[in-house]
């Protein structure tokens, strides 16, 4: 559907308006001009802001007004968003529990206000007024922020430390919803040795700089891809390099994604044991075999359970499991079954994702082959996971939202026994610099004082990485110098 915006002066806000409309009508476009479906705003900005929105869709007209006492750009935009959401709610009957919030990390917003000294009540009031966020989501944000501060008491003081992300771009097969760098290890087995040369270089150079400049490492996370796709021998070489290069004495947590059960065996677990690593992920996504086949995971439910038990035998005491809500052809019965199986295994952490149709994924390219449950049912499934978590004593401790996520919902990380992933908190809340090392690894340079963020992405495919890792390493060292030395 095309919707024509009449206000020329809002040309720079087309995408912002379209993102809101897409929450109600997928695949809609907002263009400047005239047509059957129109949108316009009457904006009065004097001592206060008053915006009146007009929307005509399929011959029906809607209008709404919003006001703000502050008159800067940000508040004008908020008022525009509010009128649009109100009109779309009138039109569709759909209430957005996240209100007008798109593209902002909800708990980051909450932390910002909390750090300014506002009480929880004041923060709730302000977020409700500015973004129309529901009470349920505000309560969730409050609980998460509280838990994060409990998990990392010095959370607001970690800006002068960094965390490390190491990207290994190999997996057994590519999942249909995936857009991460994940090359089939079967096809790319011979690329691993050359890739490791670059990776070991990056680790050595970065580790030396951090040691020389006395910058501590808070946490290390091995992701990708699935790091356990490489051989146990290669994994050992990689871990040896990390332990030799970084000052491990201050590292509070090391996590290795072993997400695909088909990459786990006794030899790999022995290597992890040797390095005292006991925090891993083993991700079922679903406990229905047909679903696993449909999404291209090529392992069975039995293998997930067997590998989980094997990991326990090897003293893995802090295991995370991911589940995805809204997988193709799944309904509440499948989710109930997945939760029952999760109850039996009782991992320390449970991350509940809502399926997101990422632009470059196989699932989005061939959407008709992957039918998903209607919005109402997705909401009910999510509710089931929340109720399950509460019954079983899992506390929510981080959340994030993605574009094109089903039902405009969120992904929530839960944990029991305070086995929180510190890395996940640090990256979600953007509290410190994350150094991305390896293929497709994304770095976030965060200024320790101002919080200003600069993203920097390593090449996604191993061939480009192998050719240019020295350049990318040098660039990151320059950025580190700028970030941490400029203010000395
Ligand atoms: S296991 Fe993870 S990284 Fe690998 S293909 Fe699946 S979603 Fe992508």
UniProtKB/TrEMBL annotation:
Transmembrane segments: none annotated. Residues 156-395 form the Radical SAM core domain. It comes from the Bacteria. GO terms for cellular component: cytoplasm. This is Coproporphyrinogen III oxidase. InterPro entries: Coproporphyrinogen-III_oxidase (IPR034505), Elp3/MiaA/NifB-like_rSAM (IPR006638), HemZ (IPR023995), rSAM (IPR007197), rSAM_sf (IPR058240). GO terms for biological process: porphyrin-containing compound biosynthetic process. GO terms for molecular function: 4 iron, 4 sulfur cluster binding; catalytic activity. Gene3D superfamilies: 3.30.750.200. PROSITE patterns: RADICAL_SAM. SUPFAM superfamilies: Radical SAM enzymes.
């Amino acid at each position: 559907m095309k919707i024509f915006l009449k206000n020329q002066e809002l040309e720079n806000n087309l995408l912002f308006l379209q993102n809101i409309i897409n929450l109600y009508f997928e695949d809609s476009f907002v263009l400047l001009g005239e047509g059957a479906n129109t949108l316009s705003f009457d904006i009065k900005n004097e001592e206060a802001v008053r915006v009146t929105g007009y929307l005509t869709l399929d011959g029906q007209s809607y209008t709404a007004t919003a006001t703000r006492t502050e008159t800067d750009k940000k508040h004008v935009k908020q008022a525009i968003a509010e009128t649009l959401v109100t009109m779309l709610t009138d039109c569709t009957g759909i209430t957005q529990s996240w209100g007008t919030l798109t593209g902002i990390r909800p708990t980051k917003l909450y932390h910002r206000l909390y750090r300014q000294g506002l009480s929880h009540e004041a923060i709730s009031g302000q977020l409700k007024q500015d973004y129309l966020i529901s009470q349920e989501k505000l309560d969730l944000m409050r609980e998460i922020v509280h838990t994060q501060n409990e998990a990392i008491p010095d959370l607001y003081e970690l800006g002068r430390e960094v965390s490390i992300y190491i990207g290994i771009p190999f997996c057994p097969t590519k999942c249909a919803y995936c857009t991460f760098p994940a090359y089939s290890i079967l096809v790319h087995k011979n690329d691993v040795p050359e890739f490791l040369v670059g990776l070991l270089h990056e680790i050595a150079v970065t580790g030396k700089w951090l040691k020389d400049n006395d910058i501590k490492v808070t946490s290390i996370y091995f992701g990708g891809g699935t790091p356990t796709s490489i051989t146990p021998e290669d994994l050992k070489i990689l871990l040896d390099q990390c332990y030799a290069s970084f000052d491990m004495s201050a590292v509070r947590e090391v996590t290795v994604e072993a997400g695909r059960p088909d990459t786990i065996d006794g030899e790999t677990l022995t290597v992890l044991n040797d390095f005292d690593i006991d925090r891993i992920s083993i991700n079922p996504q679903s406990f229905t075999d047909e679903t696993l086949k449909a999404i291209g995971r090529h392992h069975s439910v039995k293998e997930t359970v067997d590998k989980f038990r094997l990991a326990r035998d090897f003293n893995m005491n802090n295991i995370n499991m991911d589940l995805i809500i809204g997988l193709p052809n799944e309904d509440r019965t499948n989710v109930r079954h997945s939760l029952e199986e999760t109850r039996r295994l009782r991992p320390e952490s449970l991350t509940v994702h809502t399926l997101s149709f990422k632009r470059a994924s196989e699932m989005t390219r061939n959407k008709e082959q992957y039918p998903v449950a209607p919005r109402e049912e997705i909401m009910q499934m999510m509710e089931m996971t929340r109720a399950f978590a509460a019954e079983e004593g899992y506390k929510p401790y981080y959340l994030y939202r993605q574009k094109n996520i089903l039902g405009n919902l969120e992904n929530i990380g839960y944990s029991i026994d305070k086995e929180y992933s510190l890395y996940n908190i640090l990256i979600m809340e953007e509290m410190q610099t994350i150094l991305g090392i390896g293929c497709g690894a994304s770095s976030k340079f965060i200024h320790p004082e101002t919080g200003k963020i600069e993203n920097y992405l390593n090449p996604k495919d191993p061939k480009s990485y192998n050719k240019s890792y020295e350049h990318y390493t040098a660039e990151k060292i320059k950025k580190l110098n700028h970030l941490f030395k400029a203010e000395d």
